[in-house]
Design goal:
Radius of gyration: 26 Å
Strand content: 5-15%
Low-confidence stretches: 1-7, 315-321
């Protein structure tokens, strides 16, 4: 008795033997997901993503002033040194300043020299406006480099989806692979829509966040698919709709437990991570919610639609031999 008690988890999100009929609302779930994804595609074109320095090109300078940042004084000092159209904003504490500048035109040595001159003038302006200020970071990315980074980022996303398709296709039947990739594409479009609404800077850090979300979401779906495949062999006469519901319910505690753990781990970064990490963490939190819900309400219904006849037909053929 004691060993059994010690072996039981202290927290269970749903009681053992839970039988929620998830597939009853499969059409509503698919329609809602399709609507949100189409809306996200529209948001991608208008207002579009807020491209960061990695993809848009430009200069970012982070500085820390001795006291509260005096934006009027800093802006006037930058204008006096012919620093054009400086975008100033506070990030983190009251004495942390973020300055965004467009990269100067020009290529090769001339462009690099103009960029360095602009960074030097910006640094001098900040120190002149508030003596004792420290420049913590000054990054510059040219237009040609940023366009290449953007292409590479999209290529990384495309290759990740392709590798996921191949992995699931090899491990499961094709219905599982197609269902997973369709669901991941829907998750990806919703994340893009969230980025368009939230106006977080879309840069290489966000590409890393999206790739992390895709990996997490894939793992979540593989867990459910594994249980579906086990139950297909175990319950050879059970209708596929009931079997999918049973598989989701049997893995529900594990799904919610894993999602909650990752969510709680990312939440402090979102709240206290500052400008550098908060955007990444908020996108992660959104992706965790979307990935977990899509494993139940999107991936499983698509699998049911694609495999309702063939998966059971194959098993009946085996049973007759």
């Amino acid at each position: 008795m004691n060993a059994h008690f010690l072996g039981r988890p202290l927290l269970r999100f749903v009681p053992d033997g839970t039988r929620i009929n998830f597939m009853r609302g499969r059409f509503i779930g698919l329609a809602t997901s399709a609507f949100l994804s189409l809306a996200s595609i529209g948001l991608f074109f208008y207002p579009g993503l807020s491209l960061g320095i990695d993809f848009k090109g430009g200069i970012v300078v982070e500085a820390r002033t001795p006291g509260s940042a005096n934006f009027d004084a800093i802006r006037a000092a930058l204008q006096a040194r012919h620093v054009p159209a400086a975008g100033l904003q506070r990030f983190g504490a009251d004495n942390d300043v973020l300055i965004r500048l467009d990269a100067p035109s020009g290529k090769d040595a001339a462009g690099e020299a103009a960029t360095q001159s602009l960074v030097d003038r910006t640094r001098a302006g900040i120190i002149a406006a508030q003596p004792g200020a420290q420049v913590l970071r000054a990054d510059a990315v040219g237009a040609s480099v940023s366009s290449e980074l953007f292409r590479n980022g999209l290529l990384a996303l495309g290759l990740s989806l392709l590798m996921i398709l191949v992995y699931i296709w090899v491990r499961f039947e094709w219905e599982f692979a197609v269902s997973a990739v369709i669901t991941l594409v829907l998750d990806l479009t919703k994340t893009i829509g969230f980025l368009a609404i939230s106006r977080f800077q879309f840069d290489l850090v966000m590409v890393a966040a999206i790739l992390t979300i895709l990996g997490y979401s894939t793992n979540d779906k593989v867990v459910v698919y594994d249980r579906v495949r086990e139950n297909l062999r175990k319950y050879r006469t059970m209708p596929l709709r009931e079997l999918v519901d049973l598989s989701i319910n049997e893995t529900l505690n594990r799904t919610l437990g894993t999602s909650s753990t990752v969510f709680l781990a990312a939440l402090p970064l979102a709240l206290f991570g500052g400008a550098t990490l908060s955007g990444f963490a908020w996108v992660m939190l959104f992706g965790i919610v979307v990935g977990t819900s899509s494993s139940i309400f999107i991936a499983a219904p698509i699998l049911l639609l694609l495999g309702e006849k063939r998966l059971r037909r194959d098993l009946h053929a085996v049973q007759k031999r």
